[in-house]
TrEMBL record:
Pfam families in the cross-refs: NAD_binding_11 (PF14833), NAD_binding_2 (PF03446), PWWP (PF00855)
Organism listed in the record: Crypturellus soui
One Gene Ontology molecular-function label: NADP binding
SMART domains from the UniProt entry: PWWP (SM00293)
InterPro entries in UniProt: 6-PGluconate_DH-like_C_sf, 6PGD_dom2, 6PGDH_NADP-bd, GLYR1_PWWP, HIBADH-like_NADP-bd, HIBADH-related_NP60_sf, NAD(P)-bd_dom_sf, PWWP_dom
GO annotations of cellular component type: chromatin
Biased composition (Basic and acidic residues): 79-132, 149-169
Main location class: nucleus
Record protein name field: Cytokine-like nuclear factor N-PAC
GO term, biological process aspect, one: transcription elongation-coupled chromatin remodeling
Localization annotation: Chromosome
Amino acid sequence: GKLGRYPPWPGKIVNPPKDLKKPRGKKCFFVKFFGTEDHAWIKVEQLKPYHAHKEEMIKINKGKRFQQAVDAVEEFLRKTKGKDQASSHNSSEEKNRRNSSEERGKQSAGEEKRKASLSEGKLKKGTGEGKKRVSSVSSERGSKSPLKRAQDQSPRKRGRPPKDEKDLTIPESSTVKRVMSGTVAGFKWPPSVSEPVKDSDPHFHHFLLSQTEKPAVCYQAITKKLKVCEEETGSTSIQAADSTAVNGSITPTDKKIGFLGLGLMGSGIVSNLLKMGHTVTVWNRTAEKCDLFIQEGARLGRTPAEVVSTCDITFACVSDPKAAKDLVLGPSGVLQGIRPGKCYVDMSTVDADTVTELAQVIVSRGGRFLEAPVSGNQQLSNDGMLVILAAGDKDLYEDCSSCFQAMGKTSFFLGEVGNAAKMMLIVNMVQGSFMATIAEGLTLAQVTGQSQQTLLDILNQGQLASIFLDQKCQNILQGNFKPDFYLKYIQKDLRLAIALGDSVNHPTPMAAAANEVYKRAKALDQSDNDMSAVYRAYIH
């Protein structure tokens, strides 16, 4: 596999699964990393003794996940010390139970559990063959396997994955032992009242629009990448350690990445791109927002044109159609940096006409274009759990694979430019209309003498239960309208969705009604609050 850079991390040498082949070349050991469920083949020269380098590692790594890993090491050492004392009385009996010297050797190696920490450097990813042959182990939780769950939920027909989908050849067992590319930890999502318990690794999915199948089964999973889990914290909120979702299986692309626009969504995306080892150059209309990312290792671009000209793939995430056009066509804009081979990915939620126009001017200069609006909010952006809807240049979509895995949990490729814009507007139309309905219900409960909290409790026990419903109701009940998704942007999306309906003479009365309520909220100075502040439009 490709090589990537990762920080030092504590681990222990363990026996690999029997049918997992050792990589050719330099001598290496199979290492399990503490505080995670990661395993990897690590070269001997990249291993250092834990005790000798413990203090040095702690100075380098200040993160919460690393501290949890160190705590796990110390707990392991305490348990091992106790086991060693107890096992010394039984060593002769253990010898008699072994049938061959080879088995004895394997057992002693397994019990030795040598500690090691990875030195900062390049870690080799498990080979493709290794991935295919990873063996399964029994589950402590007794749940479905991550792959099995994903297949049950996928729009694809259930069953064994197609032969040509190489990344789907993970054994369908209750737990999967994974060969990961590095040592970074990800997380397990603590369950909320309304969220199905995800007791194993969530997957990253790519979905490809098939032009030959019926709409009901028109999405085909083309890769599934594992995210790494941490132990539950016991919290009932949807929070990840260090507010960042880390996909342990990602090997970052060696292409230079540019990013324009560091708003609620862009900031989380850039942070995750950097954490996954991507080389990123950033630009924002207000330059001060770049400072934090410069400290995290990003480079600073002075203009959009400069970013595009110095990077291979440039992403943009701005507020609306006007901002998207100005960014490309304005002075020192994206278009001035485009030349043959340059790639531009617009992640803004805009209308299909706007994105089609931008695609045409980019391609006319020899550039490659992909639209990739994202479904989510600030929290999901920070957690690397966005849903990406892409359309346009298929090869560029594939080139963006490691970037999409860093920022999201799922991506869909929807065909020609304009399709993603339309789909995104429809998704946000449904979400915005639902939010207005929630606010309407809560205020009606209040004015009729019903408990709003009880209404939420009832909804959370019924078929409407969802993370979105629970979080937005909590915002309203607590009077906390700190923006997770700006109200002014959901109103913009409703407006554009209604216009989309107009363009094909399709009625959108629900969206139209919701749009009027959001307009009322904007008149009450709620534009820069969260979309849940639409509640205030109903207060007499």
